[in-house]
Amino acid sequence: MIKSIKTWILVGFASLLLVACGQGGGGAGSKKSKTLENTKKAGFVKCGVSQGLPGFSNADASGNWSGIDVDVCRAVAAAVLGDADKVKYTPLSAKERFTALTSGEIDVLARNTTWTLSRDADIGLTFVGVNFYDGQGFMVRKNSGINSVNDFKNGISACTNTGTTTELNMRDFFNSKNISYEPIAFEKADEVVQAYDAGRCDTYTTDKSGLAAQRTKMSNPDEHKVLPETISKEPLGPVVRQGDAVWEDIVRWSLNTMIEAEEYGVNSSNASSLKDSENPAIKRLVGSEGELGAAFGLDNDWSLRIIEQVGNYGESYKKHIADTGILPNRGPNQLWTKGGILYVPPAR
Amino acid sequence: MIFKKFSIENKKARDLIPQAITVLALLSVIIYFATNAQINMGNRGISFGFGFLNQEASFDITFSMIEYDGSHSYGRAFLVGLLNTILVSAIGIFFATITGVIVGISRLSDNYLIAKVAEWYVEIFRNIPLILQIFFWYFAALRALPLPENGISFYDISFLTIKGWYIPKFIWTNFNIFLLSIIAAVIAIYFINSYATKQREQFGKQIPATIISLATLILIPLITFLFLGVSLTFEYPVLKQLSPTVFTYAGGVSIIPELIALALALSMYTATFIAENVRAGILGVGKGQKEAAASIGLNKNQILKLVVMPQALRIIIPPTTNQYLNLTKNSSLAAAIAYPDIVLVFAGTALMQTGRAIEIISITMLTYLTLSISISIFMNWYNKKMAIKEK
User: Is the pLDDT of residue A91 over 60?
Assistant: First the structure.
């Protein structure tokens, strides 16, 4: 009896070793898109989003996510799986987001993430584009008498999020102005808002879109204002893992399709009726000309599905950012043809 | 004959083979994970190395015990975080121990009110998750504190506000001499005490060692003030206006509210467990011991101090060591309320800015391991010292 138990233990160890060896060496980098295959197999797109930022990625009471970042993931799902709702959202803190992506827990990171050189080049990530041009600003109490960043004086305390470019910009800014300040960095945006609201800090600094969105969460939003100055460039965009060029292209062109659709006036309600349009660019967008989808192993209606199910960029912006009162004015996030800087390469 | 030596019948071999297999299996699992991580990191273009520790950190930290700003390295930022972790753990352990001992003894008090209050304290604070207590002290208690312009003033030299507790700053001249005098005093006290013990044990002479020690501790440093040019002045915090409605204090030292809230939560929470250890220790001392002590005429305080506590300590110390370790590890919850401990500064911000997850998490884990083992070693030494010595 004792002998047989021992045998079983040995067999157990041996099989454990075999299993371990069998799984070794898995990783991305093959010519076919492993991520695309896995996504099709799983039946949903694994998408990393924020822990709640109105307008960008925010869950309602019943757990439905919405926002312009969420729409990027929905566009990818519509293109790849044919259904924009087939997305599994993983809320991530600023700290967790890149590890979640490089470890394969998610396949697309659409979480108001700033595109910087070191992030793009150093840690195994690839930024595929920009879906929101932002810049860092400051929020103060209206009655503080501070009307511009020039009114900041030595000893001011500033609350922000940890693990973000914000923390670095803040230092650059105060150093360049030669102002000593007290930085208080929290892990979650909700805690920053609470601490600022309680009076722990005199100013709250993050991306201006974030300030506008978080202001709605304050106990009395009308008591606060955002200072006019912008102290940094914050191009926010979706990110993928380095090493899967096909998947990278799919995400990039899903976003580009939404912007290009707006440029050509194609939206969710008129897309299918434009199949016989006279403009070849529009015909390519709605899939009635060319074989563009084949380039990354998709059918020809991939872009039509994006426009029909998710809408073009303008629709997405209006629905999530403008109509919610976060930033009614599109500013730089307007098409290049209308005075903004949204400009994507042609889909042809 | 020679076969028998290696056969399964041989007891030594029978004992050794399963152990060897276990070690081998464990090693293969570790090697498998290490190589797999390496392959995957290679595939994804992530490099591995510790060179980043010398790079400029370029982020600032609210609170640091050593000189630091963003132009220092990530290695220096690590040190700042580590010292902050040690600081809050030390403060937490200090107050948890004092509170724990008082509450533990109070629970055994004959006074109904004291015993009940102590019992309620233990039951409430040990049954609420620590993170909620931290949030409570930080967000609920913080909101109750006034803004700087209405700060709670202590004799106009210290102010408690929502932005922190501002206390006077000590400005020393010839601090080194003062420090040396303290060290000299401590050494002197050690000799006085061992002399007193010897006198008591050999000749039964009672020397008032405590009073002499106290006098030494005050007198020697006092001499440095009077004759050796040591002096101390204070820089008091002064209210400063930054804008029509924004105020802060300039000068003095600011104890940030994050530190206060975290230290408070950690010590209040851990004190409940220490209190239970103390109660168990005291109850663990035989009733006969107390009765015997009473019969030779010792009063209640003497019984506690001379008879019960020395024996109870042997029961109290080992589980209390665990509590000290828990407190130190729990201090990592600091990140939730922006206290810049090692987790927030190094495993948080530095990890984000460099993206070196594996390196940074390994360093952080190793640091906690080292901290915990150091506490363990110290407490084991103390435990041995307190163990019964047969005479």
Answer: yes
For the stretch A291-330, pLDDT in tens is 888 888 899 999 999 999 999 999 999 999 999 888 888 9
Using CB atoms, pick whichever of B35, B45, B139 lies closest to residue A24: B35
The DSSP 8-state label assigned to residue B329 in this structure reads H
Chain A residues with CB under 8 Å of B344 CB are: 162, 185, 187
Same domain, A143 and A257: no
Q: How many CB pairs under 8 A join A and B?
A: 165
Is B274 contained in some domain? yes
Chain A: nearest CA to B31, how far in angstroms? 10
Check whether residue B36 and residue B85 sit in a common domain: no
Q: Are A27 and B353 inside 8 Å of each other by CB?
A: no
Residue A46's H or E segment, with its range, is strand A45-49
How far, in Å, CA of A269 to CA of A291, rounded? 23
Between chains, do B248 and A156 touch, taking CB under 8 Å as contact? yes
pLDDT in tens, B88-105: 999 999 999 999 999 999
Q: Which amino acid is at B113?
A: L
A183–B45 C-beta distance less than 8 A: no
Q: Is the pTM higher than 0.90?
A: no
Q: Which domain range does residue B123 map to?
A: 74-130+260-386
Answer yes or no: is B328 within a domain: yes
> Is B53 within the bounds of a domain?
no
Examine the domain organization and report whether B24 and B116 are in the same domain.
Answer: no
d(CA B248, CA A130): 40
B248 touching A (Cβ < 8 Å) = yes
The helix or strand, by DSSP H or E, that contains position B245, with its residue range, turns out to be: none
Closest chain B residue to A165, measured at CA: B353
Contact criterion met (CB < 8 Å) for A157 and B163: yes
The CATH number that applies at residue A178 is: 3.40.190.10
Asked whether residue B98 is domain-assigned, the answer is yes
> CB pairs under 8 A, 24+ apart, for A228-231?
A228/A148, A229/A137, A229/A138, A229/A148, A229/A149, A230/A135, A230/A136, A230/A137, A231/A135, A231/A136, A231/A137, A231/A138, A231/A149, A231/A169, A231/A172, A231/A173
Q: Taking chain B, what is the end-to-end CA distance rounded to the nearest angstrom?
A: 54
B348·A202 Cβ contact <8 A: no
* Residue in B with minimal Cα distance to A116: B353
Indicate which of B22, B352, B353 best probes the interface with A, i.e. most A CBs within 10 Å of its own CB. B352
Q: Is the pLDDT of residue A263 over 50?
A: yes
Residues A189 and A265 grouped into a single domain: no
A339 φ, ψ (degrees, to nearest 5): 95, 0
